[in-house]
């Protein structure tokens, strides 16, 4: 059983398009996150949700909008994609000091 | 703000030998968690080892162990008997809690190459 799953694993799209990445966890964790890994492999938090409530919103452009329909799901919608949005996006969940990451979604904007 | 620094962008080691990856961090907290994650070419983030700051004993997981020096704010990872499958990016991470919300802060990563 996959603990944290993301779809799609790869996403190739044109500049200006809108796209979504979905994340689901079956661990019963209360908190979910989106992290961005840039081309230099640096990982930085974007958002965090606890029981469907947004609790961390780092300095992220308004074009990025997370949505958590329930505790087990956290989606990321990106409007008007730009070249600089190309990266690997990781979903993660946590309960206390236990963290589990999804497999990542590689987004390529052409 | 908490920061995590990995000063070695790349390291290499001969198969079966031992290698140590360095990590330092900056914090004013007294109780926290530190982690080492492995990211192979598959890009999956795999937890290698976790250390609780209030525990003085260094964490170990099979061939992986840490040298946790709380006063020096240092958290190095030692890999013994290196294997080809250990080749990956390794990330040091610090768990911080700000206004009740926790997050992991990552270092820049160290790319480890294993030479056969």
Description:
- The complex is a heterodimer of chains A (110) and B (116).
- Chain A has 110 residues and is mostly beta strands.
- Chain A has strands spanning 4-7, 10-13, 19-25, 31-37, 43-50, 53-57, 64-70, 73-78, 87-95, 98-101, 105-109.
- In chain A, strands 2, 4, 5, 6, 9, 10 and 11 form a seven-stranded mixed β-sheet that branches. In chain A, strands 1-3-8-7 form a four-stranded antiparallel β-sheet, with no helix packed on it.
- In chain A, strand 5 and strand 6 form a beta hairpin.
- The model of chain A has no long low-confidence stretch (mean pLDDT 95).
- Chain B has 116 residues and is an all-beta fold.
- Helices cover 0% and strands 56% of the residues of chain B.
- In chain B, a hairpin with a 4-residue loop joins strand 8 (64-69) and strand 9 (74-79).
- In chain B, 34% of the residues are buried.
- At the A-B interface, strand 5 and strand 9 of A face strand 5, strand 6, strand 10 and strand 11 of B.
Concise overview:
With 110 residues, chain A is mainly beta. Chain A has strands at 4-7, 10-13, 19-25, 31-37, 43-50, 53-57, 64-70, 73-78, 87-95, 98-101, 105-109. Helices cover 0% and strands 60% of the residues of chain A.
* Total number of strands of chain A: 11
**Total strands of chain B:** 12
Strand content of chain A: over 45%
Category from helices, strands and their pairing of chain B: mainly beta
Radius of gyration of chain A: 13 Å
β-strand percent of chain B reads over 45%
Low-pLDDT regions of chain A: none
What percent of residues of chain B adopt helix (DSSP H or I)? under 10%
| Protein chains sharing the most extensive interface | A-B, 22 and 24 residues
Largest sheet of chain B: 6 strands, mixed
Q: How many individual helices of chain A?
A: 0
């Amino acid at each position: 059983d996959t603990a944290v799953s993301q779809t799609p694993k790869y996403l190739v799209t044109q500049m200006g398009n809108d796209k979504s990445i979905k994340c689901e966890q079956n661990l019963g964790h209360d908190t979910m996150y989106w992290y961005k890994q840039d081309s230099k492999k640096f990982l930085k938090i974007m958002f965090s949700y606890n029981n469907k409530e947004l609790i961390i919103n780092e300095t992220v452009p308004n074009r990025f909008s997370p949505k958590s329909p329930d505790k087990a799901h956290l989606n990321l919608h990106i409007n008007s994609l730009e070249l600089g949005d190309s990266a690997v996006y990781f979903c993660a969940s946590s309960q206390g000091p236990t963290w589990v990451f999804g497999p990542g979604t590689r987004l390529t904007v052409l | 703000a908490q920061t995590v620094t990995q000063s070695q962008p790349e390291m290499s080691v001969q198969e079966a030998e031992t290698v140590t990856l360095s990590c330092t961090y900056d914090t004013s907290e007294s109780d926290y968690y530190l982690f080492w994650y492995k990211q192979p070419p598959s890009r999956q983030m795999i937890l290698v080892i976790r250390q609780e700051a209030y525990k003085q004993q260094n964490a170990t997981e099979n061939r992986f162990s840490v040298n946790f020096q709380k006063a020096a704010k240092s958290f190095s990872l030692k890999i013994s008997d290196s294997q080809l499958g250990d080749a990956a990016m390794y990330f040091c991470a610090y768990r911080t809690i700000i206004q009740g919300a926790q997050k992991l802060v990552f270092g820049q990563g160290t790319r480890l190459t294993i030479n056969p």
